[in-house]
Design brief:
The strands form 2 sheets. A 5-stranded antiparallel sheet has the order 3-4-5-6-7. It is elongated. It is α+β, with helices and mostly antiparallel strands. It has 3 helices and 7 strands.
Length: 145
């Protein structure tokens, strides 16, 4: 065999396979295009929860983000309405609903209106809520006085 002819084809520097310990090979094709057999990411990235997600999981994730934005937007709209309806620092309203008496206390804090609700049932039960979340009597009274 002559020294000019080798058994293996010579690779130029730009056409060499790029190999790193945790990546699949990539080749530069004629014209400069890079051919990658698999996404070139490290082992740590491939084992991350994001890399392991199926298309359905990715869709569900995006859907949850959109739903969270919708909820936030609805809360903003509701707060705007409450700010317009209850401009004073404290407003108290009472209504009779069936066998219960509901007392609403609206506290306008300037940039947010909290809704405090006390439900007194004729059978003796008394329940307290702040922004639709249950709370105890002591905290409810502390916040509304």
């Amino acid at each position: 065999m002559s020294p000019e002819i080798e058994s293996k084809p010579r690779e130029s520097g730009s056409a060499k396979a790029v190999l790193e310990s945790d990546e699949k090979p990539a080749y530069i094709a004629p014209g400069g295009a890079v051919i990658v057999s698999e996404p070139r990411v490290g082992k740590a990235a491939m084992s991350s929860p994001g890399a392991q997600m199926t298309e359905a999981d990715k869709y569900d994730s995006v859907l949850k983000q959109v739903e969270a934005q919708d909820v936030k937007m609805m809360e903003d709209v509701q707060q705007k309405r409450l700010m317009e309806k209850y401009p004073e620092r404290k407003t108290v309203e009472t209504e009779k609903a069936g066998t219960s008496t509901i007392t609403y206390v609206y506290i306008n804090r300037g940039d947010f209106v909290n809704v405090y609700k006390k439900v007194v049932h004729d059978w003796g039960g008394v329940f307290f809520f702040i922004d639709e979340r249950p709370t105890n009597q002591r905290f409810w009274e502390h916040e509304t006085n």
